[in-house]
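Shipment paperwork, digital attachment
Item: protein structure file
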Amino acid sequence: MTDRLSEVLRDLAAEGDALDALVAPLTAEQWGTPTPAEGWTIAHQIAHLAWTDEVAVLAATDKHAWDAVVATALMDPDTYVDEAAADGAALPPDELLIRWRAASTRVATMLAERDPEERIDWFGPPMTPTSMATARLMETWAHGHDVADALGVEMPLTDRLRHVVHLGVRTRNFAFGVRDLDAPREEFRVELRGPDDQVWTFGPEDAEQQVRGSAYDFCLLVTQRRHRADLDLEAVGPDADRWLDIAQAFAGPPGPGREPQRAEG
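Attachment content:
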């Protein structure tokens, strides 16, 4: 296992622990609290994380089962994820919590044992174990943010955000491609302020297309947890501006995003 994968898996475990601490004390009634994702309760959010971890293990270890998952998803791609979340959300909360904990442990163990250069099939492009671990951290952070919003609390900001930022930058071309748009050929310059005022940078300093602002807000953007109009992000250049309108760090079809909470402009 590479140092990079070890780091991401450590931070993935910490992100999961933070969300676990938030949901474990909840009553059965609280598990039914609606979240910002339309039609999804807190139980749906945790069920989705459990299901995705389970499917990730299948993708790496059981080709027959994975192919069956893909075939089923292709039959109804618009509702498949929602239906899987609803099935899990129907479980008693204590059973759902056990299922999620077990799934998150299994996927971390599986990733730690894979060849670092292996490409694991997924709903988007195949991923290395490190990329998949980063994606699992991104999803845990994003769905944890929905849970925190539902409960009216704030998740602590940590430098684990840098993994979500990294994935958001790396998926720039995917965001264009999934919308049947030509991806820009040139690199962008991305400069983002982390939670402790550190600056995370990507791309050449002299790039014409640039994105600057808050790393936290960038994470909210690429996970589609906030509308661009509500975020502290600045684009320089038309291609960078277009990217901020369509950015997504998750696999699958374009998400609907969130409505702005303040007037645009």
